[in-house]
C-alpha cells in the first residue's frame, strides 16, 4: 500500500522538481482508475456542470451537486488528494463560504478550490484557521465567463504583473495551492518560480509545477466538438481508458505534455 498523497507530498514533489499530475473525476470508478494509475490529485471540478449535466457553463452547479460527486469520488479513491470546487456563488459571503466548505470537507474533500483573486486573501487565512486548506484558481476563472465575455486567455499585457502580484499575495496569505488557467506560459513559469506552494496549470504551459485536464477532454469525449487549445486526446494512441490515463501521467512527468501546440503566448 502506497501512503496517501497529502499537501506535504505535493510540496516535496515541487521541491524535487517532479511534475504533479491532476485530473478531474466525478465518480467512484474513474477515481479508482486515476488514483491507482499515479494521478496524485483528483479534482472534483464544477466542470461537471458541462460534461455531466450538459449545461453550457459551470454556473448552474450547486453545492449539493458538488458534495454528491465528492462523496462518490471519496469512495473510489485510492490515496489521491481530493480537491473540490466551490461552485458559483457558494463563497459569496464569509458565512456561506464556511457552510459550503464544511459540506465539501465532510463529503471527502481534502482541499477546497475557489475562483478569484486577492479579495480572497482574508478568506484563505480564515479557512486555514478552521482546518480547511485552499487552492486558488486564477487566470481564466470560468465562473466569471459573463464578466470576461467568453472563455479568453488572461494575464496578457498590463494584466500580467497584476496576476503575478495576486498570486504572491495569496501564497503569502496561506493558500495551499494555486491553479492557473489559460495564461501565457512565461507568466505561469514566473509565478511558479516565485511562490513556494505548488502551482498547477491548464493552458499555462510546461513551466507550472503540475498539470490538470478535464477527464472527458483527455479521453477525446466532447459534447460540442469544440475543444480548447490546451487539450490533448490521450485515447488516440491507447487501447483503454486506464492506459490513456497512465499515458497522461507519464507525459506530464516526462515533460512531453503540454507541448508548444497547447500553449498560449504573451
Ligand atoms: N470540458 C471542459 N473542459 C474544460 O477545460 C473546461 C470545462 N469543460 N468547463 C469549465 C471550463 C471552461 N474552460 C474553457 C473553455 C473554453 C476555452 C477556449 O475556448 N479557449 C480558447 C482561447 C481563446 C483565446 O485565445 O483567448 C482556445 O482556443 O482554447 C478555454 C477554457 C475550461 N474548463
Ligand atoms: C478546468 C478545471 C481547472 C476546473 O476548475 C474544473 O474542472 O472545474
Ligand atoms: Mg472549476
UniProtKB/TrEMBL annotation:
Annotated protein name in UniProt: 3-methyl-2-oxobutanoate hydroxymethyltransferase
Cofactor note: Binds 1 Mg(2+) ion per subunit.
Metabolic or biological pathway, per its Swiss-Prot or TrEMBL entry: Cofactor biosynthesis; (R)-pantothenate biosynthesis; (R)-pantoate from 3-methyl-2-oxobutanoate: step 1/2
Gene name in the database record: panB
InterPro entries: Pantoate_hydroxy_MeTrfase (IPR003700), Pyrv/PenolPyrv_kinase-like_dom (IPR015813), Pyrv_kinase-like_dom_sf (IPR040442)
GO terms assigned for molecular function: 3-methyl-2-oxobutanoate hydroxymethyltransferase activity; magnesium ion binding; methyltransferase activity
Lineage: Bacteria, Pseudomonadati, Pseudomonadota, Gammaproteobacteria, Pseudomonadales
Function per UniProt: Catalyzes the reversible reaction in which hydroxymethyl group from 5,10-methylenetetrahydrofolate is transferred onto alpha-ketoisovalerate to form ketopantoate.
Keywords: Cytoplasm, Magnesium, Metal-binding, Methyltransferase, Pantothenate biosynthesis, Transferase
Biological process, per Gene Ontology: methylation; pantothenate biosynthetic process
Presence of the UniProt keyword Transferase in the record: yes
Cofactor(s) this protein cannot do without: Mg(2+)
Family: Belongs to the PanB family.
EC primary class: transferase
Self-association and partners: Homodecamer; pentamer of dimers.
Active site: 181
Amino acid at each position: 500500500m502506497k501512503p496517501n498523497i497529502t499537501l506535504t507530498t505535493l510540496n516535496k514533489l515541487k521541491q524535487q522538481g517532479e511534475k504533479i499530475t491532476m485530473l478531474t473525476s466525478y465518480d467512484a470508478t474513474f477515481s479508482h482508475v486515476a488514483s491507482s494509475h499515479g494521478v496524485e490529485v483528483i479534482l472534483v471540478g464544477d466542470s461537471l456542470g458541462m460534461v455531466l449535466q450538459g449545461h453550457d457553463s459551470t454556473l448552474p452547479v450547486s453545492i449539493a451537486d458538488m458534495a454528491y460527486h465528492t462523496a462518490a469520488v471519496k469512495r473510489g479513491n485510492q490515496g489521491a488528494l481530493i480537491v473540490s470546487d466551490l461552485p458559483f456563488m457558494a463563497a459569496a459571503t464569509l458565512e456561506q463560504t464556511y457552510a459550503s466548505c464544511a459540506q465539501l470537507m465532510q463529503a471527502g474533500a481534502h482541499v477546497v478550490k475557489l475562483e478569484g483573486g486577492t479579495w480572497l486573501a482574508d478568506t484563505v487565512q480564515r479557512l486555514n484557521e478552521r482546518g480547511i486548506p485552499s487552492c486558488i484558481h486564477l487566470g481564466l476563472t470560468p465562473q466569471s465567463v459573463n464578466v470576461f465575455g467568453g472563455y479568453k486567455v488572461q494575464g496578457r499585457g498590463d494584466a500580467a504583473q497584476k496576476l503575478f502580484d495576486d498570486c504572491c499575495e495569496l501564497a503569502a496569505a496561506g493558500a495551499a495551492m494555486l491553479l492557473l488557467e489559460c495564461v501565457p506560459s512565461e507568466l505561469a513559469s514566473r509565478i511558479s518560480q516565485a511562490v513556494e506552494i505548488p502551482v498547477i496549470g491548464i493552458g499555462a504551459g510546461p513551466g507550472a509545477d503540475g498539470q490538470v485536464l478535464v477527464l472527458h477532454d483527455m479521453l477525446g469525449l466532447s459534447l460540442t466538438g469544440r475543444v480548447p487549445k490546451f487539450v490533448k486526446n490521450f485515447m488516440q494512441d491507447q487501447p483503454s481508458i486506464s492506459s490513456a490515463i497512465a499515458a497522461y501521467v507519464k507525459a506530464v512527468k516526462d515533460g512531453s505534455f503540454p507541448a508548444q501546440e497547447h500553449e498560449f503566448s504573451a
